[in-house]
Write a structure and sequence with these properties.
130 residues; alpha/beta; 6-stranded mixed sheet; 6 strands; 18% strand; globular
Length: 130
């Protein structure tokens, strides 16, 4: 998959070939919660003070109550609440200046959705409880 796209940033249509793509507003239902089981979310990256770091896209993934950000950041409060996130990965897999967050988010979902229970347990062991 990574060879297919190289080191370029991925678009919605690139990712949507494999997994559903959402933005923050499309996840919420009338009760403010989501019943979507997994997918990749397009968000802007912000620093610890809530200031926009990149004006553009940053891809993160979720599976049930698990959240993955390639920078190892916890989920933003609105996503945490909407998706009922209780665990997230603290592993830093992407460096500043790299544009591989879409690739890494898809790899996370391939691991947990497409590969079976043993990989889910392995991922859970590396996740931090909220």
């Amino acid at each position: 998959m990574i060879k297919e796209y190289g080191n370029r940033a991925l678009s919605d249509s690139d990712i949507n070939k494999y997994f559903p793509v959402y933005d923050r507003s499309s996840l919420k239902q009338g009760n403010g919660k989501s019943s979507v089981p997994y997918g990749i979310i397009n968000i802007d990256r912000v620093d610890g003070n809530g200031k926009l770091v990149h004006n553009g896209t940053h891809w993160v993934a979720f599976y049930k109550n698990m959240y993955y950000d390639p920078f190892g950041f916890p989920p933003p409060d609105d996503i945490k609440k909407t998706l009922n996130i209780t665990m997230y990965s603290t592993d830093v897999n992407q460096g500043d200046g790299e544009v591989i967050c879409g690739h890494l988010s898809m790899l996370f979902l391939f691991d947990v959705v497409k590969s079976g229970l043993s990989n889910i347990l392995d991922v859970l062991q590396r996740m931090k409880r909220i």
